[in-house]
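Sample pair:
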Amino acid sequence: MKMIRNPVIRGFNPDPSFVRVGDDYYIATSTFEWFPGVQLHHSRDLVHWQLIGHALTRITQLDLKGIADSAAVWAPSLSYHDGQFWLIYTTIHTAGAGRPFKDVRIFLTTAPDICGPWSEPISLNSIGFDPSLFHDDDGRKWLANMMWDFRKNHSRFAGIVVQEYDPKAQKLVGPMTRILTKDVLTEGPNIYKKDGYYYLMLAEGGTGWNHGISMARSKSITGPYELDPQEAVITTRHDDSVPLQKAGHGELVQTQSGDWYLVHLASRPLANRRCILGRETCIQKVVWSEDGWLRLAYGDMHPRVEVPSPGLPEYSWPALPARDDFDSDKLDVNWSSLRVPVDSSWLSLKERRGWLRLCGRESMHSLFEQSLIAKRLQEFRCTAETCLEFAPTHFTQMAGLICYYDTKTHYYLRVTHDENKGSVLGIVLTDDSAYDELVESEIVVNEWPRYFLRAEIDHEQLQFSASPDGKAWQKIGPVLDASKLSDDYGQGLHFTGAFIGLCAQDLGGTHAIADFDYFEMKHSA
């Protein structure tokens, strides 16, 4: 039997939402401050998955300028009903440790096809985050959400609530009903109807090491709900030896043949318990017990790396090329930018054919207009390489290869100008908000016609290298701690994952041009 190998969607792809339409399966995942918003993945056999696009591609759908790291788009919920796709998504404006408020906007967008066009968003409410839309068999639709409580001496989790949505009026109607409260942070509610019960699936215990999925059920959508007598459907909170840690936040799908599968997030930690790949998407086989509760098919609560597939006809995708020569007029779907969409004011694939041109803008710390594009790190071993042509004339102009977690933590191999030395190449970094320059790593490169730049990650280690011709390479700087590019390092919220990418800055506002001939990113297990 063909096996599902987890994670099925590797690298930063958390909070998966799962839907089947006929013979096609789709998963939507969170994107936080990265643009475009909400990644959309397709499979026909649950074994092979491919990123096919994004739902939120316009500023009118997603305005992220000024959004904090690990805020913005949390936990989308994808469904299909009435001949169209429905996507509920949340934008978080206020988030962070010690901050009691969550300034939240919940939106609905629809599309006739998974690839769009997706409609302009309808604003629903701001009561909490991680909502979902349930389509009942009587034609009514219900928004399920967690309610956030900012008040002193109150639990931040104020309960799970439901409210009816009127698609004709395009708004929520009727009373908001609290259907469940617990003494642990509970979010990501999803409702399923089976054998006369409304089942409420919940993400529980935060999204870190204590994470899990729990269940409740009721004969009425508005309750009362009884809790599953088992602590969780899936969790790793009691066993740190399980390869897929932090398991939780999931959704459920029934296959054409009647089998049930659960999609969920999990992380693969390094030996030092840091997760540079972020939270990834996994699939588990599940069954219903004799007394009507959802259980993993293996008889315990632990996710498996290998899972029996449903035996659907194999449907594989062409292997993605490791190298992008920038020969197309459009960026490949696997590229992401920070907070703003790609446009011709700062990125061009046409001005110099076969090259990617970036116009330098704000710094690596900016929450507004960075000229940066990047791809997700998907394995613990990776080599990324590029070729840069750049002629800086001032120390405010920089361009190069960046290994990036967020504005507070990243490593940057860049070319810049020094008024005493001319063109120099070296490493600058930001370590949990502290900016530093590894001056001892700098070399003078006035005679280099081009700058070939390389980053090699091997688990906890990162080594930069450079070459004037792509043949004679030399190491630049010391071995760096790649594990800092993780959810588990530094202060504040950390919900994303490591990226490697290309960027350019011009802090003088003259928009210095940096041209990149190619970008190659090779992963190995």
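The mean pLDDT is 97.
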